[in-house]
Amino acid sequence: MMSILRILCAGSALVLGAALYIAPAALPAAAQTSPAVPERLWDGFNSPVGMAFDAAGNLYVAEWGAGRVSRIDPTGNRSTFAAGLDGPSGLAIGSDGTIYVASYSRDEVYRFTPEGVRTVHVTGLATPAGIGFDRAGRLLIANRRTNQLLGVAPGGRLEPVIDGLRTPVGAVQTADGGYVVSNIGGGVTIVRPDGSRVEAGKDFRTPGPGIAITKDGRVFIVDYGGTTVREILPNGESRSVADGLRSPVGLTVAPDGVSLLTAAWGDGTIYRISIPQ
After folding, report:
1. Distance from C-alpha of 149 to C-alpha of 170, rounded to nearest angstrom
2. Are the beta carbons of 27 and 15 closer than 8 angstroms?
3. Do 219 and 190 meet the contact criterion of CB atoms below 8 Å apart?
4. DSSP code for 233
5. Is 3 left (phi over 0), alpha (psi -120 to 50) or beta?
6. Among the four residues 80, 107, 128, 272, which has the most C-beta atoms within 10 Å?
7. Which residue, 28, 185, 16, 13, is CA-closest to 103?
8. Collapsing DSSP states into helix, strand and coil, what is residue 123?
9. What is the largest distance, in Å, between two alpha-carbon atoms of the chain?
10. SS3 content of the chain, % helix, strand, coil (to 5)
11. CA–CA distances in Å: residue 112 to residues 76, 93, 103, 246
12. 2: which DSSP letter?
């Protein structure tokens, strides 16, 4: 199977999360701790990418290679939620339970009811990768080919949020109105509310689309080109919180709030990672 990095850079892939990010002074120091050993939960996925939990604790997983979205209920039972998709990548769930899925290959974002009824929500994109929400509930799209983060206004109108990125595949909004962006072709960028930028990707081989943020504002990003999940610090530093993964690509915060779930492209497996204190 062709790697996702090759697909993305050639013009085909992936995930964005959105939540709040606390003020920089409140984030942990860059003190290094031993990376956690990921706990294997489920395997047998076909290129898993976007991941998100709904309010009932069901986990939804976009499987790029299978063209489907799978659902795992709180007891661990797996089922197919949607099939026949073309390059499903980013996945996000709204506060009303609506599931949004980006089709990177068709330049669209789909909207699903919790019962699985699908409609086209946004079209006319340019290789949409990650999707998520800003603090106001607006849908955000990492539009890889135009190097933009886009917002979806009422009526489906697209509006630029950030221009001049470097192949963005994931982003979260910060509590102060800034953003943290994962660029698969060029590191991790912290965008301040005043527009200034801090580069935070020097310790990554290739930042991937999996980006997640906790309620208290800690930001985590997968290193798709490596084997780690790293925590991003506001001064541009990062620290490894888990190691030993085979091309981690998806990432989400678990309902317990004290662990992350990551999906590995290399072995089609979903792992749990304890969030270090």
Report:
1. 9
2. no
3. no
4. -
5. beta
6. 128
7. 13
8. coil
9. 48
10. 5, 45, 50
11. 22, 9, 13, 30
12. -
Question: Rounded to whole angstroms, how far apart are CA atoms 150 and 160?
Answer: 5
Contact 249, 49 (CB under 8 A): yes
Is the pTM value of this prediction over 0.70? yes
Count of CA atoms in the C-beta half-sphere (13 A) of 212:
30
**Which two three-digit tokens encode residue 94?**
């709204």
Please state, in angstroms and rounded to a whole number, the distance separating the CA atoms of residues 27 and 11: 36
* Distance between CA atoms of residues 246 and 224, nearest Å: 8
The position carrying tokens 């939540």 is 19
Look-up of token digits 């969030």: 275
Contact in structure between 107 and 12 (CB atoms under 8 Å): no
CB contact at 8 A, 27 and 217: yes
Q: How far apart are CA 23 and CA 242, in angstroms?
A: 24
DSSP string for 11-37: T----B-------GGGSPP----PPBP
Half-sphere exposure of 175 (CA within 13 A, CB side): 16
- Which one-letter DSSP state was computed for residue 182? E
H helix or E strand, kind and range, residue 5:
helix 4-10
Is 111 in a helix, a strand, or coil? strand
- Dist. CA 209–CA 207, nearest whole Å: 7
